[in-house]
Every structure is written in C-alpha cells, then in structure tokens.
Amino acid sequence: MSRLQDVFAELKGKRAALVTFVTGGDPALETTVPLLHALVEAGADVLEVGIPFSDPMADGPVIQMSHQRALAHGTTITDVLAMVATFRERNTRTPVVLMGYVNPVEAMGYGVFAQACARAGVDGVILVDLPPEEAGEWLAAARQAAVDRVFLLAPTSPPERMRLIGEASSGFVYYVALKGVTGAAHLDIGTVGKQLGAVRALVDLPIGVGFGVQDAQSARALGEVADAVIVGSALIRRLAAAEGAESIAQARAFVAGLRAALPPRQ
Amino acid sequence: MTYDLPDARGHFGPYGGQFVAETLMGPLAELAAAYHVARGDADFQAVLARDLHDYVGRPSPLYLAERLTAAAGGARIYLKREDLNHTGAHKINNTLGQALLARRMGKTRLIAETGAGQHGVATATVAARLGMRCAIYMGAEDMRRQAPNVRRMRLLGAEVVSVTLGSQTLKDAMNEALRDWATTIDDTFYVIGSVSGPHPYPAMVRDFQAIIGREARAQFLEREGRLPDAAVACVGGGSNAMGLFYAFLEDPTVALYGVEAAGDGLATGRHAAPLTAGARPGVLHGTRSYLMYDAHGQILETHSISAGLDYPGVGPEHAWLKDSGRARYMAVDDQQALAAFHALTHLEGILPALESSHALAYAQILARELGREKAIVVSLSGRGDKDVETVAAHEGHH
After folding, report:
1. Does the pLDDT of residue B284 top 80, yes or no?
2. A193-202, B188-197, B376-385: least confident range
3. What is A25-47 written as a DSSP string?
4. Residues of B with CB under 8 A from a CB of A
C-alpha cells in the first residue's frame, strides 16, 4: 500500500481528506519544511508541493506570483526534492505529492526524476501540462520507481477521456472543479456534485477536487461530495499576506479552520 | 515519399503533440475535428479563397528586387510581398482562416497573443469584419515598443490587455491568452498566430499560411520557367517560413533557409535563436520543440530588436525540418537586420518589418554565395511602418 492509499483507506466513510498546496521555496527556501510540518499539525492529510516554473500557464495570478517568488530566490527542482527528504526525517506518514509543469522534469530526465522522487519520499506527482497521451515515458519511469501518477480531470473531459485518465492514474485523480485557472472564484457545489457522480461511474479511484476552494464554507460544501478537498490559492494568499513566523501562523489557523469544517460521514 | 506530417495526434517525429492542462484537451479535440471537416469542405475553402482575394488583396506580388540584387552582387532576389496584404503582414492569411472557422463553430469571441502587434491587428481586423468580440494579450514591454499597433487594435474595437508578469513579451502574452481560453472556452476561439502551440494549431496555421508558398512557386515558375534555388524566411515561431516552405518541401532542388534572431549575438546569450544556438528540445505552450531554457528547465528570457521574433521556442515542424535536414537554420543579429532594413528602404523604396529584415540580411549573404546564375525567393512577411520608432530610438543610442 502506498501512503496515498493508506490515507484514503483510513478516511473512507469518515470524512474527506484535506489536501494543501504550497509552492516549494515560497516564501523562502528555508520556510517550506517548517511550513509543511505546520500544515500537518493543523490538519492537512496530504501535502502538495509545487515545483516552481517560469511559465505556469494553468495557474491564476496568486500561484503565478508564488512561483515567481520561489524562482527569485533560485529554487530548483532539486531543492524541492531536498525539501521533501528533509520533511521525511520527521514525518514518515503524511503523503507528499509534487505538482509542476513538465519542462523542468524533462530537463532532469523522467527516469532520474522518478528515482529521485522515490529516494526523497515523494508519493505522487502531478504534471499539469502532461496529459496521458503524451506521458508514456513518464508513466513507465514512475511505475518503476513506485511513484503514484496523479492526472487531472476537467468538466470539459468527455467520458472516454475520463476512462483513459482513470486508467493512467494511481493514488487519486485531481478533478478541476471549474473551467479556468487556479484560484478562480465561481465554484457551484451542486454542479460539482452531479459531475462527480458521472466521474465515479468511470473512474475507480478517490477523487480530489480543487480550483475554487476559498474558505471553510466552500470546503464544507465540497467535503460533502469529494473524497479530498484541495486548497491552494486561498492558502498562498494568506501566506503572502504576512511575514516570517506570522505567515506560518496564519496558514496554520486557516488550515485548522478548513479541517474543522469538513463534515463527518455516516 | 509524400510528406504527410503531422500524425493524427499532431506529432512531427518527436516534436509537436498536445501538452496542455486537461481543461483544454476536450476543446482542442473539438477544434481539431472542426478543422479537419472544414479543411475538406469545398464551401469553407471557397469562402476563404474569396475573402483572401477580395479582402486581403491576394495574390500578393512576387517582385524582383533589381537594385538590391545588384547591391548584393549575386543571385537574383525576389520578394514575396506579404507586406502588401491588408493590415501589412502575412498574419491575416491565418487570422482570416481561423476566424471563419470560429464562426462555423458558433464562437462569438476571438482572443489572441501578439508580440510585434501584427497578429493582434490581424485578429482585431477580422473580428471587426465578422462582428465578433476580441481581446488581445500583449506584453507590457511590447506595448511600449509597438505603440502604433496598440492604437490600431483599439480603434478596431479590440480590448488590448497588458501582460505585466514574467518578461512582458510574447511568451507571457501566450500564457495569459491560454489562461483566458481555459476560462472562456464555451464562447471563445483562441487564434494562435504562429505554427506553434498544441495540435491542431501548428498544422492549421501552416495550412492557412501555405498560400504564400503556393503562390510564390507558381509565380516563379511563370516568371522564370523553373523553380527557385532557395527560399528564405525569418523564423520566430515560424509561420511565414512554414507558409513559404510548405509548397517546396517536395522540390529537392529548392534549398530552404529559416533565419532566426541572433539579437546581440549568439555568443552573448541575448538572442532568440533556439534552432541555431544549440538549444535542446523542451515543452512550452502545448508543444515539444527546440526551446531556450536553463539547466533547471526554466524558460530563458530572449532578446531581439524585433518583437515578433522575441520568443524562446519555435514551431515543432521547424524542429523536424532541422533534424531531417530538409531546411537549414541561420541567425542574423540586430545590427545585420537594421542594415538590411535600411538597404531595402534606400534601394527599393520598401520599408520592411524588422522581422522580415532578418530574412533580407541572410538573403544578401546567400545571394553572394550562390552567384549570378541562381535565384532566391524571400518572404517579405510584413511592412516596417510599425518599426520606424524602434529604429529611430535604437540608432539614437549609437
């Protein structure tokens, strides 16, 4: 069993998992590891760590700026892997999923990257701009390194693509709850619930829902229908609004509030 | 062997493909299907042909530049006068085709990225003509460099959105246009201006631009009773070059030369020449091709005096043509391009775009190499009115 499978198995029938996204190296290289521990203490079940990229096309302004800040202090893909390895010295239980764009991974090489993920204690990887059709080399490398392959699903994915993505994925599937980029603000929970029903008929994996989680209220509503609630932009906005230790305190309070809002299941 | 690339999923050998977030995969499949049908539909092609003739002003002339030829002292230099098209560049061949396709697909809004502003103007123009809403994404730096085109787009009714993130040039404008499209796909058609981006764009844009080479080939045959010895075009993303080259791909005696922007010089690192400066393949904006990036995979900032060539990637079909040896790629720096700009202006009374000036600079070198018996066709992809300020400012500093 992978760490991702363990978490979803443990929470099944209890509540949705809480997944938090932060960019590696933002606000600073040395703050990411303490921040990850704080997020776990505040109630995050799965950690997503962004690999910063110069051209994050699928992200909205909040995460773009976060990538730019991380790159401004020279954060590399190797640094992000090292952050996870350091995090693992004190936490062997919480799954860590890296999320990034494909060019830095191609530059390193799929095989080298997959092996480095395994060594660092990375459990899964999301490559935003690598659909399954183009992912042959990555899928083979990740399988060999026993790293989970998490693909995105969107409201615009036709049924045959949902099936394809379900088959290519492991760990969970990331459902992009709305058209647009990360941090957009027009999430309609009723619609998402209906869409998830259609997805579940075709995809036999836990479904995480992201893009549009703003606050405890939207987390609670999504927690009724999703297997995992993913929060990114709203968390980064709070991190960016404060300095140093205060920014970690802000993040901790925000995540604790989201976690408390997730409804129990009968 | 018949050249039939790309394959069904948009690959030119190891290049091309569809590297986008899942939200865009469904819409791209819908676009590819709609384009496939339109491509084979006689009615669609007839409407396009009529508009290219009546509205764009095609065919564009093939002009023998006698004084430029004499000054270069070698092969005869013919200019394919895309600068004489409506809006002053080759870009409208493609925006017209895509806008007609958008209308056919029931879309009511066009968006585009632009560098020099020529593609933005060409998109705003067809949006006005077809009564569609239009938003153009343009880097803040490029808006400063190409202010007259910004004013033209606004007069045409387009919203020009200033992109202030990243290097504030073409690549950042494309990021922003992709973000818009991911949010607005229900009513919006993304008009990509180059032979780049995810499938089907590289093939579709090439097909719409291929009229450049089809006309030039027929015009040259009629004029000289044979084929030219070489075809030369500038390459940023590479749409005018693919448009010129495509008709000649199966004519082995016609050498094909793409000319990239060497900026301050290839050795300085301040250039926009992924094919000539030893860049590796990488993935950006939905496609795999040669790409300028650092050891960690971060995309590099580029430099060229010409905003239209200031892009770190290149269309995937050019990557394929380079590897296969069918086309050769050269680079010309800012100073050489400026010299060619002045040469054509003084000798022929034609102000070329700074983009096209790169092709002209290399064509003069090639003409001397080939000698007087040979003939070259150069794509004069756009006119230089938009660059008058840039040239003046640049030369004021020297």
Report:
1. yes
2. A193-202
3. TSS-GGGHHHHHHHHHHHT-SEE
4. 9, 17-27, 29, 165-166, 171-172, 175, 178-179, 182-186, 280-286, 291, 293, 295-299
**Distance between alpha carbon B97 and the CA centroid of its chain, in Å?**
15
User: Mind listing the pLDDT tens digit for each residue in A144-163?
Assistant: 999 999 999 998 899 999 99
Place of tokens 């990555």: A138
What number is the ipTM of this complex? 0.95
Query: Are B282 and A68 in contact (CB < 8 Å)?
Result: no
Reduced to 3 states (helix: H, G, I; strand: E, B; else coil), residue A2 is coil
What confidence category does residue A266 fall into, taking pLDDT thresholds of 50, 70 and 90?
A: low
Euclidean distance between CA atoms B357 and B195, whole angstroms? 20
DSSP E strands, B60-122: 62-64, 76-81, 109-114
Structural tokens at position B188? 């919006």
Contact criterion met (CB < 8 Å) for A77 and B297? yes
Which long-range contacts does B144-152 make (Cβ < 8 Å, 24+ apart)?
Answer: B145/B307, B145/B390, B146/B116, B146/B117, B146/B307, B146/B386, B146/B390, B147/B389, B148/B117, B148/B385, B148/B386, B148/B389, B149/B114, B149/B116, B149/B117, B149/B118, B149/B120, B149/B121, B149/B386, B150/B117, B152/B117, B152/B121, B152/B124
How many Cβ atoms are within 10 Å of A199's Cβ, its own excluded? 21
Q: Looking at A26, A45, A59, A148, which residue is catalytic?
A: A59
The per-residue pLDDT for range B237-275, each reduced to its tens digit, is 999 999 999 999 999 999 999 999 999 999 999 999 999
**Distance, CA of B274 to CA of B291 (rounded, Å):** 6
Q: Note the pLDDT tens digit of each residue in B328-366.
A: 999 999 999 999 999 999 999 999 999 999 999 999 999
Average pLDDT estimate for A169-193: 80
The domain limits of chain A are 3-261
- Identify residue B139 by its one-letter amino acid code: G
CB-CB contact of B15 with B288 (8 Å) = yes
Q: Enter the tokens of residue A262.
A: 């997730």
Query: What pLDDT is recorded for position B167?
Result: 80
CATH top-level class of A3-261: alpha beta
Residue A114 CA from chain centroid, whole number: 17
Q: CA nearest A106: which of B188, B287, B162?
A: B287
Helix, strand, or coil here: B137? Answer: strand
Q: What is each CA distance from B61 to B66, B77, B79, B84, B218, in whole angstroms?
A: 15, 14, 8, 8, 11
- CB contact under 8 Å between B17 and A181, yes or no, is no
Q: Measured between beta carbons, which residues in chain B are less than 8 angstroms from residue A58?
A: 20-21, 23, 178-179, 182
Please indicate whether, in this complex, the C-beta atoms of B19 and A129 are within 8 angstroms of each other: yes
Looking at beta carbons, which residues of chain B come within 8 Å of A131? 18-20, 22, 25
pTM: 0.96
